[in-house]
Amino acid sequence: MMNFRNFDDFWAFYMSQHSNPCTRRWHFAGTLSGIIISIYSLLFNWRFFVLAPLVGYGFAWYSHFFVEKNVPATFGHPIWSFYCDFKMFGLILTARLDGEIKRLGKRPVLHSF
Q1: In this structure, is residue 73 part of a structural domain?
Q2: Are 29 and 61 a contacting pair, CB within 8 Å?
Q3: Which sequence ranges are marked TM in the entry (predicted)?
Q4: Using CA atoms, how far apart are residues 111 and 84, in angstroms rounded to an integer?
Q5: Is pTM, for the whole model, over 0.85?
Q6: Residue 107: is its pLDDT beyond 60?
Q7: Does residue 62 lie within any of the structural domains?
Q8: Is 50 a domain residue?
Q9: Of the residues 79, 99, 100, 113, which has the fewest C-beta atoms closer than 10 A?
Q10: Considering its fold, how many domains does the chain have in total?
């Protein structure tokens, strides 16, 4: 498992693992689906709550295995990865992700966990 000095270092790594725009779209769809399922389960039937992480992570992990062809960051750093999923979701939703990618620029990519 890789160690990071702080969240900013992990964020740069996280974004390097989501370099393909298609991967980011799958993540967005998974996070949005997870949010919708969570809201539905809170309002109507709590039993559906178990589907939220299954669907959310299912979309994301599919994109890593079949689109990006790397290992999901969740496997090594589940809490920071969860936070980054929502940060990326918010940046996509507010059309600021391209600016963030430019801000991060080209950084060394670390591949092992």
Answers
A1: yes
A2: no
A3: 26-43
A4: 18
A5: yes
A6: no
A7: yes
A8: yes
A9: 79
A10: 1
